[in-house]
Structures are given as C-alpha cells and as structure tokens.
Amino acid sequence: MAEILAFPGPDVPEPAQPLFAATERVNDLIPGGEYLLHDVRVGQDTWDLAGHPDWQDKAGTATRFPFAKFSQRWRDAAKELVLLQMNPALAAERSPGNPMADNWPQIQEPIKPVTAQGNLKALTYALQTVDAHRLVRFDADDWERLPFLLVQPASVEDKQTGTTLSPLVGRGRAQQLAALWQATQITGRNGLLGHDLPFGGREINELFTGRGKRNQVHPHEHVGHLLGFTAWLIDHVAEDVIAHVEWWAANTATEAPVSQSELRQRMLGQVLEIAHHTGGRVPGSRNLNGELTLAHAPLARLHGVYDADEAFDAGRWVQSQLRGRVVLDESCSPCPLPITAVPTLDGGEKPWTVRLIAAGSELDIWQRRIVYACMYYLSATLMLRDSQLAILTPNCVSAEEVQRPDGTSYIKRTLTAHKTKNRHMPVPTTVVVNSRIQHVIALMGRLQRALGYEPEIHSLTGLRYLFDQRLATPLGKKARIDAREGLYLDQWFVKLMRGAGAELHNRAVIRHSLADLKVNMRQVRITAGQAYAVREHGQALAAAFGQWDTAAVTRGYIGDIYKIISPLEPEEVAEVVQEDVGRRMRWVAAQRDTLTGNGLPRFDAAVAAAGAPLSNPAPLTPARLKSLGKKNRNVTQGPLTLCMWQAEGAMCDGEGKPNFRLCFPGRCRNSVMTRVDRARYELMRRQQLAIGSESSQRAAAKMDEGNPHIREEFKDLSDDDVYDIVIEHVNAYVREALEGAA
What we know:
This protein is mainly α. It is built from 29 helices and 13 strands. The strands form five sheets. The protein has a three-stranded mixed sheet with strand order 4-3-5. A three-stranded antiparallel sheet has the order 8-9-10, covered by helices on one side. β3 and β4 form a beta hairpin. α11 crosses α15 (360-382), α11 runs parallel beside α17 (435-451) and α15 (360-382) packs across α18 (491-506).
C-alpha cells in the first residue's frame, strides 16, 4: 500500500501575545491619528486614514490601506509592520527587552501615510511572489532564490513577451520583505519568514545593481498637442463659458419657491415669456431615452431649485399646460448672451457650440473643462507642479508699465508662485509671464466671484488659494463630501479634454478629435523643459521656468533633454556657453552675405576685432571657440535673432543683458538675423494668423509691419518648407557641436 505524505504547510508562528489587539484604535497608535475622520480599528481589513494632516492631495479610496489583498497568512503581520513603520516608538513600548525592538527606532524612521501606502503596495507584490512559488519554510536557500523571483513577470502575457521588472522595483520589494522579517522578530511571528537573515545578510542594493536612467519619464508630443488645444480653448471658448456662468449667477433667484405649486407657476410664466420673445420656441433637451422634453432642470435652477425630482415634476406639468402651443428647441436658451463664432474646417464660421444652458452636458461640463484647461496651460508653460498649482493665489499676477530708453513702453507681467519640492514650507518665487497667463488668472478670478464663495486659506502659506474644488463645481451645487479640497491634474482631467475635443471635432471647428490623447502629468515638466532647452542658450530659460536652483536638480533634467551640455558647476556651464558663442559667431560670419538687421554694423565690428579666428577657414578647436566666445560675452542667440547686446539703442530695455520677451528682431540696433532666424520669424507670424483671435491678428500685423521683407522672402514657400529650413539648421548645428567641429 502506498504511503501518503502530507504536503508541508506554513510553520505555525510561535505562540505570542499579539502586539496590537484587534479592537485597538489605529487613531491612538499613529502620529496625527487624532485627526482621522473615521474610527479605525486594528482588526479591520481596510484602514481609511482620511483626515490625516499629512495627506496633501488624496481623497476617497486613495486614503485607504487594503489589507484584504494579503492572504490570511500575512495579514496581521502586514498591519503590525505598517504601525511600526509609522510609529517606531511602539516597538520598545510593546516588546520591552527585545533586541530588535530596542534598535528599531534607529533602524526605522517614522514615515508618513503616503510612504506607508507605497511600502504596503510593494510588500503586497513581494508576498504574492512568495505565495506563487510556494515558499513555505523560509531558509537560506529560499532567501537566495528571491532576488531572481522578485523581478520575474507575474502574468502569462508578460512571460510570453519576456518582460522583466526593473532592478529598482525588485529592490523596493526586497526592502519591504526585509522590513517584514525585522518586524516578525519584534512581534514573535518568527515562523513566517524564518530565523535566517534575509538574503544571507547581504546589502539589498548589491543584489539589484542595475540602475535606470536618472529620469525614466521622457518628453511626449501629446503634451504639445494638448497645450495647443487648451490655448485655443482659452482664446475662443473660455470667455463664453465664464460670461454664461456670470449671467446664470446674476439671474438665479436667491430664494426658492416655498411650495411645489409656486414653482410650477413661476416656471410656467418663465416659459411663456421665453416663447413670447422667440416666436414660440422654448428650451428643450434630450432625456436618458433620447426623447426631446422641456429643459426643466436649467429652468428650475433660475428659481433656486436644484432638486432633480422637483424640477422634473414642475417641468412635466408646464409641458402639459403648453402642449401644442410651443415648440421644444435644443438651440433655445433663456440666456441672451451670444456664442463666439470660430473658423470651421471648410473655411466658414459658426459658433463653437449651439448654446450654454445650466445643464450637466452643457455649461456645467464646460465650466469644469475650462478650469482644468487653464490649470494645464499654467502647468505646461510655467512647468508648475500640482503642489505649486494648488497654492496659487487668486491675484497672483501683477502688471507694471516699463519705459524703454527710446520713450516707448511695455507691460511687464509677473506671476508670484511658490517652490514646493523638497521643502518643508513653500518658498515664494516669481516668474515673468505672458498676457494669456494674466488673462487665465483673471478669468479664474471672475469665475470664483460669480460662484459666490470665499476662497479657502491654505494651511502651508496662510494665503487664499485659487484652484479650490468649488471652482469646478456648478453654480448652486456642492462638491462631493469625499472630494479633495483642491483641484489636481489627474488622469480624469485627460478624459475631460478628450470629451471637449470630441465635441468640438463633431462641430467641425477643430481638425483632430483628441481620441488618442494620452498624457501622463509627469511628462509635462520634462517636455516643457525640453521645449525651452533645445533653443539656443535654452538651458538658462529651462532653468528659470523649471526653478532649477541646485546642480543635482539640473542634472536630473539635463541628462534627458539637453544632450549638448551637462552642467555640473557654474564654471563648467560658463565655459560651455562661451564655446557655443564662439561656434555661433563662426556660423553667422560664414553667412555674412545673407544677414539682415540693424545690428550689422556691431556684428561687423566684432568680426573685425576677432581677426584670424573668423577669417581662417580651418576648423577651430574647442579651446579657440571658448576664447572667441569669452571675447564676445555680449553676443546671445535669441529665439528670432542674434543679439549683439549693447545698452545704447536696445529696444528691449534689458538690464545688463537682452530681454528676448520684448525683443524687436531686425529693428533693434543689436539685432542680426540669419535666414534661419527669419524663417522662425515667418513661422511665428503665420502661427499668429492661424490662431485667428483679435490679439493674435494684431501681433501678426505688428510683426509684418516691423519686417515686411521677411514675408516677401518666404511668400512662395509652404509652412512645411519654412519649417524644414529651421530643422535642417538645428540638426546640422547640433551634429557639429556633438562632433566637436567648428
């Protein structure tokens, strides 16, 4: 008879008094627990730590710890580890005399809930690997195998494609397994992971030696596509949306009817008045079944009624009273404000939408879309993080008129923000911005005032903040109870933009529907940094907008987006800039016959002073280029011109250096334009014309007035042809810089 062998099960943990009773309150065990909104017990399989002061931007399910994802074997141990990591002092308090417990506060620093969540997720995946490979009795051999198992794919699909996890992920999971082993030595659950040292006592960093790139996130073209779309919304749609919210706010009754009968009579009189002015047409809308009915909800809102059932009852009664006397029309609205007409794809013009009544599918959704579009535009152009957007104040842009030496003036607009990353408290900073950003902030201020709420005071800055959750909440309604206090550019925002794109595409007012739009907000800063940095001398521009105030931060971005230079120290940056100036002088001098601009006399004087380096056709060494650049510190390449900076005659009123935001290419006495500069200039002029707004038309006309010969020079070339001129130059210049030739 065959002998039956029992399959070995997990070791039974040594008998011990649990470190934490199932009925104990987590509120009493962790720092900040007194602020929790819920009564959380250790024995619960889901801990909701909502209300903890260290949550900066999470709400809803994002504040939960799902211990139910662990098998019963690991669940209690995982809870104990989380508590010991968040409050290391509990170890010695609950397990006195235990050597591991006595040393735990030195091994483990207190962590915040968001870090504990990340650790718990890593531990979840690590223990799933342990269970999947049936590692039951942990010994030295099991610990030896784990470094290889932790980076293996978990799904069949990943195995078929040969996918493996990065060493960084494996290291994170291994660290949590080692932490769990240490916790079991404190709690007495030695049977779970055995007595052998994790991974043979070796350093976990040595087990996972592979290092990824400094920045795993790469620039993406969809960031630019979405930036163009949001700018179009701001120029053509935002004013209509804000104006309609203001109208509905001004015309909504402050007191609702005291009875349903009164609401019916009020709505009946209102509908009759609308029909009188429209020739018998009244606002209609489609219900869930697709049937055309009276737009009862928007009409009820004008009477201060937001309850859907009350609005439906009154609307159905009014419709029954007027059956056959009025015509339901989906384009009719009680609001008399017009909708802006925009150019269509067939060359004509029509309103970008039919109407904007206070309904979920019309004004309500467009209000939300515009708020998020403005947030994205600020983030993508100013490289603002979510944490920085969250503390922008309602009146954060100031404007002042600055006089130029020639008697003309310009408006300087400055945005006040805060640096937040790696800082205990936000640090004030400023950046010069364009008129559209000033317009964005003004629009959001108007919206806030129309909605009639007082902005909250931010706990970190003591200032009122602009992007309150209520800013995107329709008039008269309340934000969700579990919603975060502020607004954030999460993935739901991308869905909002896709919906806006699809609606406008169906109206034939934009060419692309944005159906394939995929934007990870982590890509926004790196893409914006690249857009600035790839310009000539763009590292300074990227550093200014990115607020790169340390060499380490700069290297993190530069490693991916600006291959020509890798600044480590200020001296090295200066040398690279000098070499680039020398190379630029060589390039421009070689094209003397094609140069234009009022700065040519100053350029010729610089060439004559340089002598042999600019007259010798032989390539120059990097040292000669640096020497040439050092002698011409006043030379700077801007977006549209080479600047031979001298304060006398400068039209930008720069303080010791050119201010390209106020540059007058071609006309300034410092300006020298190559054919590539003029091609960029022409592309910008055409882009301003394509935008079609009143301000952009003025800008295009001003550019043409300043340099009419540029339009004539490229009049026979298409946009693609002019673009190719720029690209060919950039590729050739970068290639030469990388090869070390001059």
